[in-house]
Amino acid sequence: MSKISKTILGDLIEFQRGYDLPKSEFQAGEIPVISSNGILGYHNIAKVKAPGITIGRSGTVGLPHYINEDFFPHNTSLFIKDFKGNNPKYIYYLIKTLRLNEYGSGSGVPTMNRNHLHPIKVSAFLDIADQQKIAKVLSDLDAKIELNNKINSELEAMAKTLYDYWFVQFDFPAKLPSTSLRLTSSDIDAVSLSEVEVPYKTSGGKMVYNQELKREIPEGWTTDVLASWIGKDKSGDWGKENLEGNYTEKVHCIRGADLNGLNGKGAVKAPTRYILEKNRHKILDEHDLIVEISGGSPTQSTGRMAYITIETLERFDAPLICSNFCKAVTLEDETYLYNFAFEWDKAYDHGVLFGYEGKTSGIKNLLFESFVSSYNTPKPPREIAQKFYDYMKTIQSKKQKNLKENQQLTSLRDWLLPMLMNGQVRVGEFEEAVSPDSYREVAEGRVEYKKG
Fold first, then answer.
1. What is the pLDDT of residue 363?
2. What pairs with residue 71 in β-bridges?
């Protein structure tokens, strides 16, 4: 590789302010409108050909976005008008190292002036071949992360479809008496009907009206409040920031802000804390559920939830606890873990938990006991819950392993980014030690490569 050069940002690229487009003037189309935070919506006209880069100009300033399709840059963003012959992906990664958010100005809403960016002094590789090599290494890592995210999205869709099919439409697999089956003579073969599993409701399974739910549920199912599913709870803890006196037990503390990350929707930034040895009973175990009981916003209720699997615990180098703003619960019967989780999420998504909130000093608190003691749900027989648990355990195992790999790949990428950009790690040395197929091994620390 060539030597790194000292230059200014304006010699590599030229920024331009985005275009005015009030939401009232959006026209139906498939062209993404990119604002300071990313995609604002879609329009029918593109202003910039792909590939392109925008950064936040107003509000969230300096955050770069790489766009792979023609787009419309909104006036809250700056876009790169001219790459001046440089590799766009390399420029994207270079910008990520520059902390452009520090160049915002304004006493109210932060804003960014392109004329303040062009004179910034930077160190960069000017040879296009070197730029392409660096961009490929980092892009390959990002591509693997994105692939894992897509796989997880498909796994989540599969799980949701299965849940809806079994527990909303009530077409769980069931062995029904031949007299109940809606079959024609052409459906009947030598197989004993008593051995055939069929979709319960559409195959004529008996439904009975339930007074509490005001609707029909399968015969043999029960209804009860969520509180009846819960065996015990674990209060939160915060401990100390550092090892101190009797605070000797290292843990990672899960806050409300981390719950989405546990579920695969963003990063987990659970702080490392130290708790008293006598509080080890608060440590989270497999099958525990964590519920946010303080927080929320005017448009988001309290009550976000995540559950713990073995693979979840393996994502961390120390045990987990929940913070004082969360509560952990353990079910009486772990077989019903995923049923409980889906029932809870359904109530959350439908805004039910807004009706179970109180306020203390302006902070919204979930009236947990009130909710779980009054919210009725259908409860399937254990053998059906067991089948669903077995399916879900496999899905969640794959999902959490992908999240763990992404966590490791992200750490590797974030470490490599400045090292490749400043020349401390050379692409050739990295490629000698690592093939694209072995990024998992690098992320897990099983492959070493030289620096310098």
1. 84
2. 48
Residues 120 and 131 in one domain: no
Do the strands 77-82 and 14-17 form a parallel or antiparallel pair, or are they unpaired? antiparallel
Per-residue pLDDT at 317: 94
Question: Using CA atoms, how far apart are residues 146 and 161, in angstroms rounded to an integer?
Answer: 23
**Would you state the pLDDT for residue 432?**
59
Residues 343-360: what's their mean pLDDT? 92
Q: Answer yes or no: do 202 and 335 share one domain.
A: no
Structural domains of the chain, count: 4
Q: Choose among 85, 66, 79: nearest CA to 126.
A: 85
Residue 368's domain is classified under what CATH number?
A: 3.90.220.20
Q: pLDDT tens across 98-152, in order?
A: 988 888 766 567 788 898 899 999 999 999 999 999 999 999 999 999 999 999 9
pLDDT at 386: 97
266-281 as b/e: b if 16+ CB within 10 A: eebebeebbbeeebee
157, pLDDT greater than 80: yes
Q: What is the pLDDT at residue 368?
A: 96
User: What is the residue range of 109's domain?
Assistant: 5-125
Is cis: bond before 51, omega within 30 of 0?
Answer: yes
How many other CB atoms are found less than 10 A from the CB of residue 61? Answer: 23
CA dihedral 44, 45, 49, 54 (to 10 degrees): -90
Q: Do 281 and 204 share a structural domain?
A: no
Same-domain pairing of 209 and 268: no
**DSSP per-residue string spanning 170-221:** ---EE---TTT----GGG--SS-GGG--EETTTTT--EEEETTTTEEEETT-
Same domain for 375 and 237: yes
Tokens of 278: 């006598």
For residue range 53-94, list pLDDT tens digits in order: 999 998 888 889 999 999 999 999 999 999 999 999 999 999
C-beta neighbour count of 29 within 10 angstroms: 14
C-alpha closest to that of 40 among 7, 15, 5, 75: 75
What is the rounded distance in angstroms from the CA atom of residue 11 to the CA atom of residue 330? Answer: 60
- Final residue before a domain boundary, out of 379, 409, 428: 379
Q: Are 26 and 36 in contact (CB under 8 A)?
A: no
CA distance to 18, 57, 227, per residue, from 378 (Å) = 52, 51, 13
